[in-house]
Amino acid sequence: MKIFTAEQIRAWDQFTISHEPVPSIQLMERASIAVAHWISENCKYHRKAVVFCGNGNNGGDGIAVARMLYQKGFDVDVFVNNLKEKFSHDALVNLKRLRDISGISIKKFSDIDDYNFDDKTMIVDALFGTGLSRSLEGEYKEVVNQLNAKKNIKISIDVPSGLPTDKIIENKDCVFNADYTLSFQSWKRTFLHPEAGEYTGKVFILDIDLSKEYAESVAAEYNVIDDHLIDSIFQPRKEFSHKGTYGKVMMIAGSYGKVGAAVLATKSALKTGAGLTFTLAPECGYEILQTSCPEAMFFAGGKEHIENFDVDENMTCGIGPGLGTHPQTEKSFLNFLKGYNTPLILDADALNMISKDSKNLKFIPEKSILTPHPKEFERLFGKTDNSFDRLELAREKAKELHVYIVLKDHHTQIINPKGEVYYNITGNAGLAKGGSGDILTGILTSLLAQGYSEEDTCILGVWLHGKAADFASEKYSKESMLPTDVINELGSVFKELNKRTEKDL
Ligand SMILES: NC(=O)C1=CN([C@@H]2O[C@H](COP(=O)(O)OP(=O)(O)OC[C@H]3O[C@@H](n4cnc5c(N)ncnc54)[C@H](OP(=O)(O)O)[C@@H]3O)[C@@H](O)[C@H]2O)[C@H](O)CC1
Ligand SMILES: [K+]
């Protein structure tokens, strides 16, 4: 799914209005029906809605939603800033319709203090949407701060008011703090960055049937990985195939005290479906690996740390989990890197060793996949002020080095050598534990070995990792789920993917 800027969204709106064609007021009605439907389907306990409306079209949506919720049996009140202020044309049409309904009272912001926000009341925010042009000030700032202080459930229409759509938030002290954001048609970039995460709550994207022609024809540099993209990438296993069909994985991982990382990476490579899996690890890991991963074959690369990277070019190598940065490991790894020309998966200590000298970057084979977390990224490429700047630096570096960068984050970003970005939306905070990255390395190495392109490997691999984590958190909770549970859920994800490829009779 493409991510459009606020400006492109406005153009998308206009394109739909003129090409469908549909009057703009009808499009507002469509958007509002989607919101009112979502609320009435999901809010069973909260039967009273208090809707805060601005003067633009976001406010217009809010006013229309108020009418619809009232018609669905909710108690509804509407707050506007100033009835004498200029409303957008469509907001005004909806305001007139609302005035015909005697059961809804229209109040002023200054009435908030006397209003009864009982525990059955939900607060609906329709102050500003994609038209926000500056930080909130004055009465708007005050009302947002007053509402944020309430314990009631809070729902934002399209965008939490005060949050920009496609640039980093500058003024954090006046943004509506939503529990749920019901956004129209596509993701907004800010929702996917950690700086804004605390304002959106859970995001639901509502389909309001904006023009498909526009969405297909307009280029976007930023995308969200959705089921449609995953289904176009995933290849079910062929019946007449053998282990040679699914490639050879070489996990290069582990050192004394960190053999567990090699186990996790190896297990996930196996569980992702590689034909043959080998692990190059120090001898101290021999019994551990042979016992915990009997399906994999062991190569000794040293005693307590790897000091011999002797690898065949027909293997797909994933390097880094638990490797350590012993000088002998480093020397041998950098020598190997200088002489190896096939794409690699590089993670953790492999990245840390490369980052010791920026000259090492040029030894990374083209089309390799680098999987840094923010700290590793900083060591490799330098410090940035925020996650937006970090992503732009990653785009520059991916283009310059001709590599794929998997920037691990709450919504991991995949950057291809053209600088295009794919945000992942599977996964959860249960992955914020040691070992989660080792699993991702195993998954990616396995997919690349099986013949997926580098780009498809990144997209499918990151999505799989997050989806398995979502299944694990449902079973065990975000707190208790372990990386091992994530590996064990890979099977359930593949079952679901296979089911989606079956043709119905
Ligand atoms: N395609 C869709 O997704 C649809 C979206 N709809 C809804 O429309 C809004 C966008 O509506 P728009 O009127 O463009 O913008 P807003 O309602 O967000 O706000 C615009 C007005 O607010 C003023 N403004 C902006 N920032 C501030 C501020 N900090 N303080 C005070 N006033 C502010 C702005 O004034 P300017 O001075 O900037 O000109 C405007 O007057 C979208 O989010 C959806 O909810 C459609 O209903 C359906 C299709
Ligand atoms: K809003």
From TrEMBL:
<comment type="similarity">
    <text>In the C-terminal section; belongs to the NnrD/CARKD family.</text>
</comment>
<comment type="function">
    <text>Bifunctional enzyme that catalyzes the epimerization of the S- and R-forms of NAD(P)HX and the dehydration of the S-form of NAD(P)HX at the expense of ADP, which is converted to AMP. This allows the repair of both epimers of NAD(P)HX, a damaged form of NAD(P)H that is a result of enzymatic or heat-dependent hydration.</text>
</comment>
<keyword id="KW-0413">Isomerase</keyword>
<keyword id="KW-0521">NADP</keyword>
<dbReference type="InterPro" id="IPR029056">
    <property type="entry name" value="Ribokinase-like"/>
</dbReference>
<keyword id="KW-0456">Lyase</keyword>
<feature type="binding site">
    <location>
        <begin position="408"/>
        <end position="412"/>
    </location>
    <ligand>
        <name>AMP</name>
    </ligand>
</feature>
<keyword id="KW-0067">ATP-binding</keyword>
<feature type="binding site">
    <location>
        <position position="158"/>
    </location>
    <ligand>
        <name>(6S)-NADPHX</name>
    </ligand>
</feature>
<feature type="domain" description="YjeF N-terminal">
    <location>
        <begin position="9"/>
        <end position="216"/>
    </location>
</feature>
<feature type="binding site">
    <location>
        <position position="261"/>
    </location>
    <ligand>
        <name>(6S)-NADPHX</name>
    </ligand>
</feature>
<comment type="similarity">
    <text>In the N-terminal section; belongs to the NnrE/AIBP family.</text>
</comment>
<dbReference type="GO" id="GO:0046872">
    <property type="term" value="F:metal ion binding"/>
</dbReference>
<dbReference type="GO" id="GO:0046496">
    <property type="term" value="P:nicotinamide nucleotide metabolic process"/>
</dbReference>
<keyword id="KW-0511">Multifunctional enzyme</keyword>
<protein>
    <recommendedName>
        <fullName>Bifunctional NAD(P)H-hydrate repair enzyme</fullName>
        <ecNumber>4.2.1.136</ecNumber>
        <ecNumber>5.1.99.6</ecNumber>
    </recommendedName>
</protein>
<keyword id="KW-0520">NAD</keyword>
<feature type="binding site">
    <location>
        <position position="140"/>
    </location>
    <ligand>
        <name>(6S)-NADPHX</name>
    </ligand>
</feature>
<feature type="binding site">
    <location>
        <begin position="57"/>
        <end position="61"/>
    </location>
    <ligand>
        <name>(6S)-NADPHX</name>
    </ligand>
</feature>
<feature type="binding site">
    <location>
        <position position="58"/>
    </location>
    <ligand>
        <name>K(+)</name>
    </ligand>
</feature>
<dbReference type="InterPro" id="IPR036652">
    <property type="entry name" value="YjeF_N_dom_sf"/>
</dbReference>
<keyword id="KW-0547">Nucleotide-binding</keyword>
<dbReference type="GO" id="GO:0052855">
    <property type="term" value="F:ADP-dependent NAD(P)H-hydrate dehydratase activity"/>
</dbReference>
<feature type="binding site">
    <location>
        <position position="125"/>
    </location>
    <ligand>
        <name>K(+)</name>
    </ligand>
</feature>
<feature type="binding site">
    <location>
        <position position="161"/>
    </location>
    <ligand>
        <name>K(+)</name>
    </ligand>
</feature>
<feature type="binding site">
    <location>
        <position position="438"/>
    </location>
    <ligand>
        <name>(6S)-NADPHX</name>
    </ligand>
</feature>
<dbReference type="GO" id="GO:0110051">
    <property type="term" value="P:metabolite repair"/>
</dbReference>
<feature type="binding site">
    <location>
        <position position="373"/>
    </location>
    <ligand>
        <name>(6S)-NADPHX</name>
    </ligand>
</feature>
<feature type="binding site">
    <location>
        <begin position="129"/>
        <end position="135"/>
    </location>
    <ligand>
        <name>(6S)-NADPHX</name>
    </ligand>
</feature>
<dbReference type="Pfam" id="PF01256">
    <property type="entry name" value="Carb_kinase"/>
</dbReference>
<dbReference type="GO" id="GO:0005524">
    <property type="term" value="F:ATP binding"/>
</dbReference>
<comment type="function">
    <text>Catalyzes the dehydration of the S-form of NAD(P)HX at the expense of ADP, which is converted to AMP. Together with NAD(P)HX epimerase, which catalyzes the epimerization of the S- and R-forms, the enzyme allows the repair of both epimers of NAD(P)HX, a damaged form of NAD(P)H that is a result of enzymatic or heat-dependent hydration.</text>
</comment>
<dbReference type="InterPro" id="IPR000631">
    <property type="entry name" value="CARKD"/>
</dbReference>
<keyword id="KW-0630">Potassium</keyword>
<feature type="binding site">
    <location>
        <position position="437"/>
    </location>
    <ligand>
        <name>AMP</name>
    </ligand>
</feature>
<dbReference type="InterPro" id="IPR030677">
    <property type="entry name" value="Nnr"/>
</dbReference>
<feature type="binding site">
    <location>
        <position position="322"/>
    </location>
    <ligand>
        <name>(6S)-NADPHX</name>
    </ligand>
</feature>
<keyword id="KW-0479">Metal-binding</keyword>
<feature type="domain" description="YjeF C-terminal">
    <location>
        <begin position="226"/>
        <end position="497"/>
    </location>
</feature>
<dbReference type="InterPro" id="IPR004443">
    <property type="entry name" value="YjeF_N_dom"/>
</dbReference>
<comment type="subunit">
    <text>Homotetramer.</text>
</comment>
<dbReference type="GO" id="GO:0052856">
    <property type="term" value="F:NAD(P)HX epimerase activity"/>
</dbReference>
